[in-house]
Amino acid sequence: MSTGPSSNIRKADGLFMNIAQPGSPPVLPKKGEKNTLITSALPYVNNVPHLGNIIGSTLSADVFARYSRTQNKPTIYICGTDEYGTATETKALDEGITPRELCDKFSALHAEIYKWFNISFDYFGRTSTEKQTEIVQDIYLNVRKNGLLLQKSADMTYCEGCSRFLADRYVEGTCPDCGYDDARGDQCDSCTRTFASPIELLKPRCKRDSKHTLVVRPSSHMYMRLDELQPRLEAWIKSAREKGEWDGNVVVNAKGEIIEARMKGGLRPSPITRDLTWGVAVPETGDAEEDAAMNGKVMYVWFDAPIGYLSLTAQYTDDWEQWWKNPKDVNLYQFMGKDNVYFHTVAFPATLLADGRDWTMLHRISSTEYLNYESGKFSKSRNVGVFGNNARDTNVPPDVWRYYLISNRPETGDSVFAWKEFVSKNNTELKNNLGNFVNRIIKFVAAKFDSVVPGPSSLAGGPLAPTDAPNAVDEVFISDINARLNTYIKSMDHTQFRSGLFELMAISARGNQYIQDNKLDNALLASDPERAAQVILMTINLIYALGPLVHPFMPVTADSICKQLNAPLRALPEAFSIDILPGHKLNQAEHLFKEIKEEKIDEWRKRYGGESSTPDAATPVLSKNQAAKKAKAEAAAALASLPRTPEVLALEAQIKTQGDKVTGLKKEKKEGGEAELASEVGELKKLKADLEALGRALKGMSL
């Protein structure tokens, strides 16, 4: 953004974030730099994404893409709708339209929803393109040339009522592993097991008509030789896990041990063709017998869809191979729900290895568990849960939705969307913490200094170390901020976004505490104007530093902060820095967030609760023991978020000393010691209450 005539911002290479303007040429990797290629799992085109879908892939990937751009790394984020396969055919059949008409309808709907959420794709496209066909068929022929395809006849499910072979998603039945009754022919949504063939299901039935008779008949298909690829695949997985510092997942644990059942038991040849019409046709090879056997068949969606990442990049730029055939200079980050991990760590890498060319392969995988709605699952048919278009209808800004979803991201276990928590986070964390900190200082400078930042005109600015501080209070402040920035960067590098968001809000809370420590008000301005100017300069620059930290999570909020500061978006700092200098003119203060009224909770719960719209649906029922553990964990988390001020540290030390004393008295069990123990326990409770009160004060202060 441009700044006004009274701008006074430090000049330094790389200080500002490079922001691509409309019409800019495609971003390409630069030799020797940390080039970042990001994909999110391609959303199925046959549905409307709900909040769980959005946080599981597209929003999580967007947070990382924006974070990478705040470091001015060459970065692209590629995604698009997954349009081929059985799911599309069956949905089109249900709606009485062609697969192409269905894709046209839902692809536009997906694009509209992601635009509203401010998902910053460099390219969002579709897989039902000529480019997709070209690249998929090229890779197929290369795998065949390398001797890693096997043609064989296998028993397949044939529906006598439909007079056709049924591809995986046309068949439903009972999962042989977990007993789930509505498992699909390709995968069980309950336990995430995948099936090589629908005949593995128990009690299979035709999706079109459960009364149809299913029989087993032979059909010829092509299989990829995963058995021959397994040694290379395992070596790659272990190497990639170590280089990319993967978290444990369903394929490989945190120790680097392969735990996926099929790999442990030995991979088998896997079919990559299907008896469908809507898909990438199996290409002719010149072998008359083989071509006759494959005539009318298409590629299996899990062979076809991941190659969509390549074809979508090719639609973004003709120089797509600079991204995808450049493993030395490009790091590939892929985001998805846990049910897609196998396909991105086994199936897709196996395809690239089988192809044999020097592809850019997965550097780091980031997967999530499931986000549930209140006490149940999202269900479009039962009107349960918030879907992408519903979020817009609430008139709550996209940034608030983004913040809540990231703060509730199911990183290590399933999480639950709850309206009460949603409203609370907006009103307390966003409005009272971050919003209050930014607003109070900019308004104070406007009222007392006509919006001009005070201080000596000779100040050059630049990064600060604790030893640069003029006093002990500022020394602790700078030390705290630099430590928080370091933790933020480590968390974000490892795609631990909840931790990164926590550090952002802790830095904001530390800014509020700094104002309180220094008692910035009219009295300080009158008694010590030089110190007042120092405090203002420090806090204005902390707000400026918050811009790039806020940007990945809440891009519109980051833009508002910069607008109020009359400054362009800063690149991510590694240390606290004085960049906005004395004499700089700020713009008018604006509120970053608005309060959401409590009564909206019941209104939204009724609107989106479907069959679960009872008051009890808001919170899962917990036993007394579970409730106590939850309350204790929430209290511990709240205390952990406090800025490390001298007062906090002193109280924590007193609590530890008193706690040790109480523990010692309990162990002694001396006769007549009950009164003494009760007294000491009372003192311990008082200290803990004092710490909680201090915490509330740090989070809710105003000038």
From TrEMBL:
PROSITE patterns: AA_TRNA_LIGASE_I, WHEP_TRS_2. Keywords: Aminoacyl-tRNA synthetase, ATP-binding, Cytoplasm, Ligase, Nucleotide-binding, Protein biosynthesis. Its main location: cytoplasm. It comes from the Eukaryota. The keyword Magnesium does not apply. InterPro entries: aa-tRNA-synth_I_CS, Anticodon_Met, Met-tRNA_ligase_1, Met-tRNA_synth, Methionyl/Leucyl_tRNA_Synth, MetRS_core, MetRS_Zn, Rossmann-like_a/b/a_fold. This is methionine--tRNA ligase. It comes from Phaffia rhodozyma (Yeast).
